[in-house]
Design a protein that fits this description.
Layout: H1 2-13, E1 23-29, H2 35-43, E2 47-51, E3 58-66, E4 69-75, H3 87-98, E5 103-109, H4 113-126, E6 130-135, H5 137-142, H6 149-156, E7 160-162, H7 171-183, H8 197-210, H9 220-229, H10 232-246
Parallel strand pairs: 1-4, 1-5, 5-6, 6-7
Antiparallel strand pairs: 2-3, 3-4
The structure holds guanosine-5'-triphosphate and magnesium ion.
């Protein structure tokens, strides 16, 4: 029950008013990979746009139904990273970390996967509730690039769907994967990024120390890594999160 109330408080902080039974999906990706095209094809005209609370950055939210489940899709600003060098990165990161989406859909450009996977790995460090959409498959085919979706899925251990959103290819599979990830009670365990033994040791130590304060849904490994980074914008985000929870 407490978890439910906290979820609502946190979502409202981001201007998300989801009905209790509604599934919230965050839509993330590098700039210009087709996020809005995916968003539009999934939600059609059932969307509204505004700004993120207190920010001059666009926010689009839209709804769609699949298998008798209502989904609220939130289009995040396009970012290369979640390490918050810009206001857009801060919004995307704070929402994925603290807004408690039921799933995060990461859209990648099939023609430059290597660069795009950086963001996917950063999201997977935060949450296992992820679906990867490899978009622009038609462009990749034109360029003779073959993307091995099955191997990607095996490596990342989350559902990976190939799409060409502009022509509607792969969208039904995307809905099915989202439904699976957002509604399953125990998500899979994606392959975590491993760091040097020194960092891993420090993460272990910090994670144990954090057990008493961070026993909610916030990922302790991710929290420990960010405390080690000492990035002030991330520390501010973490502070806001704990303040909201204690009110
Ligand atoms: N060929 C092809 N073009 C696509 C596909 N998906 C999107 N596009 C095109 O790619 C361009 C960028 O798409 P957007 O949906 O605006 O991308 P975005 O990620 O929302 O971009 P930002 O919000 O600016 O970060 C547009 O011209 C789309 O029509 C696709 O699957 N195949
Ligand atoms: Mg867009």
């Amino acid at each position: 029950m407490t978890a439910q109330i906290n979820k609502r408080v946190l979502r409202e902080h981001f201007g998300i008013r989801a009905r209790p039974e509604q599934v919230v999906v965050a839509l993330a990706g590098n700039p210009n990979v087709g996020k809005s095209t995916v968003f539009n094809i999934l939600t059609g005209l059932r969307q509204h746009t505004g700004n993120w609370p207190g920010k001059t950055v666009d926010n689009a939210q839209g709804v769609f139904s699949y298998r008798h489940t209502s989904f609220l899709l939130v289009d995040l600003p396009g970012t290369y990273s979640l390490l918050a060098h810009t206001i857009e990165e801060q919004i995307a990161r704070d929402f994925i970390c603290f807004g408690h989406p039921d799933a995060t859909l990461v859209v990648l450009d099939a023609t430059c996967l290597e660069r795009n996977l950086n963001l996917a790995l950063q999201v997977l460090e935060i949450t296992p509730r992820v679906v990867i959409c490899v978009n622009l498959m038609d462009e990749a085919r034109k360029k003779g690039i073959i993307v091995d979706i099955k191997t990607l899925e095996k490596e990342l251990r989350v559902p990976v769907v190939g799409t060409a959103a502009r022509i509607g290819e792969g969208i039904e599979d995307l809905k099915e994967a989202l439904w699976q990830v957002a509604t399953q009670s125990t998500p899979g365990e994606p392959a975590p990024v491993r760091y040097s033994p020194e960092v891993e040791e420090a993460v272990q130590e910090l994670s144990s120390a954090l057990e008493a304060v961070a026993n909610g849904p916030l990922n302790r490994r991710w929290l420990a890594l960010r405390l080690l980074d000492g990035n002030p914008s991330i520390l501010a985000g973490i502070n806001t999160y704990f303040e909201l929870l204690s009110n």
